[in-house]
Amino acid sequence: MILVGVDVGGTFTDLVLAEPEAGRTAIHKVSSTPEDPSVGVVEGILGLCRLADVAPGDVAHVLHGTTIATNAALQHRGAECGMITTRGYRDVLHIGRHQRPQHYSIQQRIPWQETPLVKRRHRHVVTERLVPPRGDVLVPLAEEEVREAARGLRGAGIASIAVCFLFSYLNPAHERRAREIVLEEHPDAFVTLSSEIAPQFREFERFTTAAMNAFVGPEVRGYVRRLEGRMRDAGLRADLHIMASNGGVATAQGVAERPVATMLSGPAAGVLGGTWAGALSGREDLITLDIGGTSADIGIVTGGRFAEATARDTWIAGFPLLTPMIDIHTIGAGGGSVARVDAGGAFRVGPQSAGAVPGPAGYGRGGARPTVTDANIVLGRLDPGNFLGGAMTLDAAASARVIGELAAELRLSPEEAALGVLTIVNANMANAIRGRTVQKGIDPRGYALVAFGGAGPLHAADVARGLGVREVLVPPHPGITSAMGLLTTDLKYDAVRTLFQSSGALDPARIASDFAAMEDEIAAQFALDGVDPAAARYERAGDLRYAGQGYELRVPFGAGPVDEALVAAGLERFHAQHRAEYGHSFPASPVEIVNLRVTGLGPRPKLDRPAPRRGGSLAEATLRRAPAVFAGPDNKPVRAETAFLARDRLPVGEPIPGPAIVLQTDSTTVVPPGCTLTAEPGGNLLIAL
User: Fold this and answer.
1) Which parts of the sequence belong to the Hydantoinase A/oxoprolinase domain (predicted)?
2) Domain 490-602 CATH class label
3) Burial of 677 (0-12, 13-18, 19+ CB in 10 A)
4) What's the rounded Cα separation, in Å, for the pair 541 and 581?
5) 476-485 tens-digit pLDDT
6) How far apart are CA 628 and CA 644, in angstroms?
């Protein structure tokens, strides 16, 4: 069975082909096509098939990570959409909550007010009311008002509509009937129900999540359809699955209906790929650092399990979203990040990026601004004649010119300016990692840093030094690790129900009923996907908090019959988790179970561990020796004779002292002075600091 993983980045589209039964893997990179990523995806798959001598029709599965939804949200380039909501709640999307994103700033942006997902004139209200705790109907749905709202939105040219009623998470009947009426009046509309997208309490976040689904939905649906069409036209009969933010994959049809689930599609695949790479070295406590052309994505893996974002932490483009996501932090730091002196005279790097076109000056595509990549070229850390395995020649003179212009503005030498660029961008990444570790009670010194993405291995050792981390792991194919991560996961669906029960008055029968209903809901989706019911696995969890707290902690519930003992064990886990997270717990205080959750996992074919490496000798691996520039004890540039090594010829298990630079097709690894490099049998490079 032949599997293909495709991850679309801002600069390059990364591809990997795997045939687990034959134990072979092939990789490929092509330039992304921002105007329509599906063009680059299909061209890349066909090119990969040619490299691997595989007929396109023999590919069984294509797994895809995409940034379509994320980019639409970040650039506010979504559909003009409308909303139908409960009378009196037209402005929930605008008002939000009493907290402001930045409590003490008088100049802050409020995204949901400055760039609303649904303009006020397109928010229509109708008469209806459901009431807690069961969602009983207090006021029936005024169906004619829904019909009038649908006609009004159709007349205004609105083709994407979110239906968001108060307390619909307890009873979706009114929203479902409203959808039927909207489609009767507006058959071509893309309709989103808040009770299907985020069936849980918190009206502002639920309404916003539904609105975001409506906002990005038409573009994602159009992209998926174009991609499926191009694949068919190219002779690809493979079944298409797309990476979701929760760390699993979903069918193309499922993504077309719930595109908000793909908000962190590409970065999520990176965390999975980093976890897979960590397992090759027997490491389960990991910091994943994925540095591409535009951004750096940071994930935390503890005990082999990635962290999931809480309702408090799940924000995209400044909007709070209630959708399951891997806890990933993204900053504007990548190979294309632009270095500049700002209006106040400060030396800054990023978040602005040169992107794929024109890209860094060193790419020779007309770039005229100094970037991180140009700094690496000037410092001799990238080989102009051996970039992308020789497929691309870098313009070192152009890099020297733009870094020289920056240096003149800073009154530094070109090497000092280039080293300053790297110092700033590395410090930005180290600070971001501290925010996800130290500030959350995690000591990063006990973790290994897994570096990937085209630029990750270039910067990892310096970032690790800034954190006190002692080990850096570089996966076998760092530049396409996110694409490889796509081949390591299962079909994954999440279901959630709001419960609101206190530890003093728990109803295990109700909890058991809700868990069973959610498992049945996911099982029905698995049946549509052709998953063997006997192979499906289900994991239970709850969102718990102490009475009076504003947010919850996600706590796993064990398998087996749902009875008082199982629920009590969940409460004990909550106390322990609260103590680990915040340093204290209150075992005598009442605990609320706010939401119940079920995650369903449907097994899929996966990437195997690579065959053990045999390697060569250090003499065979040494391509040349040349000077490269590193930071000295006083942070001044120091030229050092550096070994340029071919990764595929490195001796296995033999420590190699730095400085060294390891070249391969999809990335370059920098081993600074004072570090030691070892090629491991499992395929990783281990840099010991």
Assistant:
1) 206-493
2) alpha beta
3) buried
4) 17
5) 999 899 999 9
6) 10
